[in-house]
Design goal:
Arc Repressor Mutant, subunit A; globular; Neuraminidase; mainly beta; 760 residues; six-stranded antiparallel β-sheet; 12% helix
Length: 760
């Protein structure tokens, strides 16, 4: 037993140093797979799953073995393993129905079909000799077609020993004849003159091969240089076609409304093009570099305007109305704009083509459903296509391309991970994206015709990469480097600000706090481990413990059951949001809902028998409820609903809507809903709490936001205490007894624009 354990440990160590998987070279310590000039980065857990398979090539690795070796000590569902296998199949171009790399063993696990050869050779070296068959070693002649006594043929199995052996063995008689011929040849070749000449020949050949076949050194990551470093936030960079000027928006040194600026490379002071009390966004250059199109937001209405780069009178192209715009670009022929506009304040976004001589929007895409939709459009250099990002749910996004004349979009990535920037390379052969497909924010290059994304460079620690812009006629790119640190703070009453402290903090994102009914534990969501997971800790913030391990599934919004032993939360294992319940002290997450709809914002009934949640299964967000142990769901609201809580006496349901400010109430026994207050904005759907005597909520009509209390008995509101800047995420939780609360605070929010050249 000890020998086998030592052997397994030795094999694991050898593989960690690198190994060949067929013609792929795998570098576990770098989470990288290479074949030829292509390299693919994968998530750490995906690499660990591959290592489990590689330690036992040709053998079935059970699901239990995977969970024990990869996720030991944490609670996950089999969906996590399935997602990792799917990612590996995508990298290898494998098909689950006709596998050549990873085979599914029904109801048991998975099996690796290709040989594994431990090696520390660089990825640019040639792969070692391997069997010619698809993952199986040719059987020796004297063992071919063996079968058990019952007449069923045995299944060939590839083992590590077979991988390093010849592809086929000859019969003993054949080896004798070969041995005699080789002996005669060796007798001649081992004479001194022949040996001397052979040595010279080998040296010459080795020198030539060494000169011409030196492995190409891996490309150095691009070295960005700061282009702007003003106080506040600089956003929406747009490089001129020649790459000599950069347009961007900036709130100015006082943090006021966003205005439009242009800065020349090499110059220090930017030229301010707009100066008004409204917001200007998304500058886009004309092909001749003489004008800028941009979006102006004034009194809640969005306008598309054009202004000369040297300054001068603006010209309005179109008024889009109250529909928010999320991206704008100018066609290479100068005749059209493409923009992303929402269908209403809280509807899906879709792409539109806007002819400059008509001002009439032509729909280009239709994401369907109640998803966030299509954003960040970018024309290809030849003007035939538009690349864009399609969001199917919160932080679940992929890259698409659509012909400008209209057709079904073509999907280029299958990561279901946040994408925060996109643009084309000048030759139109690739797209550059800023994505969290590997866990952290990084730059990736994606072939325009489809294929595996190639990692370029990672964001610096604590920062993210956003809003890419590539010069059309220069090897130069600009992007936003954003520092965004969100933490959970505790406020003690009645001390107000004198009793505030940072309770749960990291250099990453910490939000969605929830306090258990006894006030003894806190649940929250965080990406401090590299992916968004659910955590719990003590009331003083100590002893943080990761409860889930769902990489790429973006787990968030935990809610305690009345018994304090279970948590409901939302995760996105297949892109759409679904409900899960987990025992906090151990157990497997139990999935309650399935795609294609989105679910979110869970909360428990006071008796713990039901879960309320928001769902868009009817095409609109409404409040639904279902048994906490799973079962059929029942629609509760009909006029819209985004989050809901039962009253402490379990007689009333309080809820918020996705499109209208305020909080509503309705009797649980049925009745007409009534608006209680109108101060809570829709984006604060998670920043309110129900207590015995009233409602606590965040009122953003003041600056800074105000924690406000609505008294049930007196039916009026009163301010409690001013809060620091809060992000638009669910971040308010009141402790039992109303002696302290938790809220989410932006402790750092900065952005600068960086330049990179050349583009690799």
């Amino acid at each position: 037993m000890a020998d086998s354990l030592n052997t397994a440990s030795s094999e694991a160590t050898r593989l960690q140093n690198g190994f060949w998987l067929g013609d792929w070279y795998v570098e576990p310590l770098q989470n990288r797979l290479s074949r030829g000039d292509d390299a693919v980065k994968v998530e750490p857990k995906v690499m660990e799953v591959l290592l489990c398979l590689a330690r036992q090539p040709g053998q079935t690795v059970t699901k239990e073995q995977f969970l024990e070796q990869v996720w030991s000590g944490t609670v996950v569902t089999e969906d996590v393993l399935t997602r990792c296998i799917s990612e590996l199949r995508r990298v290898f171009g494998d098909d689950a129905r006709a596998p050549h790399t990873i085979e599914t063993i029904r109801k048991r696990g998975y099996r690796l079909l290709v040989p594994v050869t431990p090696s520390e050779a660089p990825a640019s070296a040639a792969p070692p000799p391997r069997p010619a068959t698809n993952g199986t070693t040719t059987a020796p002649e004297n063992e071919a077609a063996t079968a058990p006594e019952n007449g069923t043929a045995t299944e060939p199995v590839t083992t590590p020993e077979q991988d390093t052996a010849p592809a086929a063995e000859a019969s003993p008689g054949r080896w004798v004849r070969v041995h005699e011929r080789v002996s005669e040849w060796v007798g001649v070749c081992l004479s001194p003159p022949v040996l001397w000449g052979l040595g010279v020949l080998i040296a010459l050949v080795a020198g030539v091969i060494g000169f011409w076949a030196q492995p190409e050194a891996p490309a150095e990551p691009p070295r960005p240089v700061p282009f702007t470093s003003f106080p506040g936030e600089e956003q929406d960079p747009a490089l001129s076609p020649e790459g000599t000027h950069l347009a961007f928006v900036w709130s100015g040194p006082d943090g006021n409304d966003l205005e439009l600026y242009v800065k020349q490379t090499g110059a220090e002071t930017p030229l301010q093009l707009t100066d008004n009390a409204v917001e200007d966004r998304y500058p886009a250059w004309s092909p001749d570099g003489q004008h800028l199109a941009f979006v102006r937001v004034e009194d809640g209405r969005h306008h598309v305007r054009v202004i000369p780069v040297i300054g001068g009178s603006e010209r309005q192209v179109a008024e889009v109305g109250p529909r928010p715009i999320h991206g704008l670009d100018w066609s290479p022929d100068g005749q059209h704009l493409v923009l992303s506009a929402q269908e209403g304040p809280h509807g899906s976004s879709r792409l539109y083509v806007l002819p400059l001589d008509q001002g009439v929007l032509r729909p280009l895409t239709d994401p369907g459903g109640a998803s966030p939709g299509d954003r960040l459009p970018a024309f290809s250099p030849d003007g035939r296509f538009v690349a864009f990002v399609r969001s199917t749910s919160e932080a679940v996004q992929d890259l698409y391309v659509v012909p400008v004349q209209g057709d079904d979009p073509r999907r280029l990535t299958f990561d279901e991970a946040p994408i925060t920037g996109v643009d084309w390379t000048p030759d139109g052969r690739h797209l550059l994206i800023a994505s969290q497909r590997g866990g952290d924010s990084a730059l990736w290059r994606v072939p325009a015709e489809g294929g595996d994304p190639v990692w370029i460079a990672a964001a610096s620690e604590g920062n993210s990469i956003q809003q890419l812009s590539v010069a059309h006629r220069a090897e130069r790119m600009a992007y936003v480097q954003r520092a965004y640190d969100v933490n959970i703070w505790r406020m003690t009453f009645p001390a107000g600000h004198r009793g505030t402290e940072a309770l749960i903090s990291s250099t990453r994102w910490d939000a969605n706090p929830a306090i258990n009914p006894a006030g003894e534990r806190i649940a929250f969501a965080s990406n401090r481990s590299g992916s968004h997971e659910i955590w719990v800790c003590n009331p003083d913030g100590t002893a943080p413990l990761q409860v889930t391990d769902l990489p790429g599934a973006f787990a968030h919004t935990p809610r305690w059951a009345p018994d304090g032993k279970r948590l409901a939360f939302v995760a996105h294992p297949e892109g759409r949001g679904d409900l899960f319940v987990i025992q906090v002290d151990g157990g497997t997450p139990r999935r309650l809902t399935m795609p294609p709809s989105d679910e979110g914002a869970p909360s428990w009934s006071r008796d713990g028998q039901w879960l309320y949640f928001a769902s868009n299964r009817t095409g609109q967000w409404q409040i639904w409820k279902m048994p906490a142990d799973s079962g059929a769901a029942t629609q509760v609201t009909v006029t819209g609903g985004r989050a809901a809580f039962e009253s402490p006496d379990a007689t009333t349901l309080y809820y918020v809507r996705p499109d209208t400010a305020g909080i509503w109430e309705m009797p649980l026994t049925g009745g007409v809903p009534r608006q209680v207050l109108d101060a809570l904005k829709p984006e604060d759907w998670g920043n309110w709490a129900v207590v015995e005597t009233g409602l606590y909520f965040v009122d953003r009509r003041t600056a800074p936001p105000m924690l406000t209390f609505y008294d049930f008995r007196q039916e009026r509101t009163q301010p409690v205490v001013a809060l620091d800047v809060m992000p638009d995420v669910a971040g308010l939780a009141m402790a039992p007894g109303q002696t302290w609360l938790l809220y989410t605070r932006e402790d750092r929010k900065e952005s600068d624009i960086l330049l990179v050249e050349p583009i690799r």
